[in-house]
Every structure is written in structure tokens, then in C-alpha cells.
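Retro notes, item 3 of 5
We never archived the inputs for the pyridoxal-5'-phosphate complex last cycle. Fixing that now. Sequence and ligand:
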Amino acid sequence: MTDALHRPPVVSRISDLIGYTPMFELARADNGARLLLKLEMYNPTGSAKIRMARQMVLDAEERGELREGGHIIESTSGNTGLGLAVVAAERGYRFTAVVDHHAAADKLRGMKAMGTELVYVDEDGGEELHTAAREDLAEEMARGKDNTFFTEQHNNPSNAVGYHAVGREIAQALDNRVDVLIGAVGTGGGLCGTGAELKKTVPDLTVVGVEPKGSIAFGPPAHDYYQSGTGTPEGATIGLLVDYDLIDEGVKVGDIEAFATARVVARRTGLLIGGSAGGVVYEALERLPRLAPDAVMVAFINDGGEKYMDTVFNDDWMDARSLVDPAVEAGIDETLTKLRRN
Ligand SMILES: Cc1ncc(COP(=O)(O)O)c(C=O)c1O
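Structure as it came back at the time:
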């Protein structure tokens, strides 16, 4: 097995800094069961998604669909776009991101800083998700054009392949002693790519997928939600990479619980996690006391909280959308305080 834990001490491309992300023990139950967070915000761009962005580009090059001077087009809520922006800058491609105003403003500014052209589907500036409209426009922009590649993350197998290294990193770091993998499901690439690789050496692994309440991959009812970058909103097609055979359980977490968890984790530990990761950690903390003695649960943390200072960590924004419930926050605080004392 290649060394999945140590990068060379000096690199000459930012994409060579991808991977080798650390794990953090967030909680431990009375029976010794542990919750470890795989901190994917330690990748360049502060998110896991640069892993698959690079893979999609490398595979397109290998198939000859992208050549020198080519043009990459993607519909993105931000993190995929940031990853593609890095890879495009390094490899000399033009990159156009089709976006909406639901995305975190700083992610869009980051892409622009790296030379990305932004095309908005919602010039009105509202907050609704426009996933379906974004994908239609991206596809239309690439159709029939030579050396122009629509990366189509929802239906691109390279997306999941880009996360195989996460599975290897976890396996190697824990010497295969892992029982549960839990993570957010948007395109499904992160959880299913990691889970598929990890299952090769840990066949009994339980894989738990988490989506926002209102998202449809794990069933109705559909409604709007504020956890950005994750889930499958109404009108969007569930991606090819959501592998229901691999996911043992699919659960839903509401915005209030997800965001409260991110805020409590920040206060109690100093770690800033994003809103979708808050949903994953909420579910993981609920499950931890029910795990077998000394079991290990790894939570895939898609990105850090720095990107959500204007939203999840902004009291005015949260209050204006009725996303704060002090009783929920107090309950999570109590759970985490107890589980960190063990
Ligand atoms: C913040 C955030 N959370 C969760 C997800 C879901 O990950 P995936 O698309 O790999 O299922 C993404 C990416 O889409 C994301 O950017």
C-alpha cells in the first residue's frame, strides 16, 4: 500500500497538498466508543471537493476530452468550483462556473480570485437553490463545443474515485479499526467513494448517509433548506454516485440541529466546521452512545466553518430565518460536554 499518511516535505503545485488530512477525536462514550472527525477542510480550498475536482480533470485529459487550452464548465455551489479553479489555474484551462446566489459569497469571491468566470442563473439575487437550472445551463454551454468539458459532478464516476484516497488514509491511520463511516450526501461522491474503498479492507463497515431535511435522496417530503452544498433539492436528479447498496442507512437532519451543532462544536472545542458537517456531527453524536464498546465511528467533515461567517455563525442571519432554537443548542451542548469528559 502506498503511504497515505505522509506527503513529501516540499511540493511545487498546490494540488500536491491535497489529502493527508488529520483526524480529531471529538467525543468518547462511557463504553469507549469514539467519534473521530476526518478534517477535510485541511485540503487546499478548505474542502474535500478539490479531491474530486482534480480527479475529474485528470480523467478527462486521459480520455482526450480535455486538451491544452481547453475549457472546463461546471454547475457548482462553491466547493467544487474552488477545487476546479485551482486545477484549472495550474493546468492552464479556462474555467466557467455556473452558480446561484444560494452559494456562500466568499466561495464565489475565491473562485473569481483564481480566474474563474462566474455565470449566475438567478440574476435577481434571491436565496433559493437553482440546482436544476444551473445544470441545464452548464450542459447547454458545453454542448457540441470542441475541447470543452462539462465535468457534471453528479454523474461523473471520477467524482467518487477522487475520494478513494480518503478511504485509504482512514484505513492506514486506524489500522483498519473502524466500524462506522458517516457523512453528508450531495452528489454522493464523498461518502460513497470513501466508503467503497474503505470496505475493501473493512468489509463489515457500516455506512451512514446524512442529508438535510427537505432533500430527497432518502425520501420525501421535499422543501427548501439552508445547509449549503449538500443534499438533493426538489427538481434536481439524484446523482449516479448515490450508491444505495453501499449506504446502510440514510437519515435526515434539520437546519436548526445542523447549525446548532456547528456552533456548539466551535464554542466547546475551537474547531470551525461547516453547516453540512454540523448535520453529520449531530447524527454522529446521537448514535455514539449506542455503539458497541470501543467501536470507532469516523465522520467525514466536508468543509470548515470559515466559509459560513455570514450565515451559520452570524446571529442576525440566523435569527432572521428562525434558525436558532436555544433549547436545541442547549441539548447539544449538554450531550457534547458529557461525551468529551469521558
Ligand atoms: C459543504 C458540503 N457539504 C456536503 C457536500 C456533499 O458532498 P458530496 O457531493 O460528495 O456528496 C458538499 C459537496 O457537494 C459540500 O460542498
